[in-house]
Here is the input.
Amino acid sequence: MFIDANVLIHTILGGDRKAIACLKLIEMIEIGKVTGDTSLLVLDEVAWEVIKARGKTAAIDSWQKMLSIPKLNVLSLNENVAFKTPYFMKEYDLEPRDSIHAATCVLNGIKTIVSFDKDFDKVKELERKTPFDF
Here is the structure.
């Protein structure tokens, strides 16, 4: 399953019940109870939010922590994703970033995205779950 930026943002910035559910999900990935994939673009989104909330040093630390999560696979973005992205923008009226995530999932055979973003509910190729589903 693909882990969206908002899950990692809640895990890192914490402070509410969403953060607790996100942290539990990340722990499930770490021990191999569930599979987890994300992308370089997600890491970028998370770092940007951490910079705004806590500064660049915290963002660098968070980036390194995300990369060190056992069994969280970071998928590459490539030309195939670039060519598939406009389909999701047009077909489902998704913003470019969400379209990149959807294209990344589909091209990597991922059927589930874990996100609080309800826009992914429109995408017939994906099933959206939240960390509360685990």
Observations:
- The beta strands are 2-3, 36-39, 72-75, 112-114, 127-129.
- Residues 88 and 99 are 5 Å apart (CA to CA).
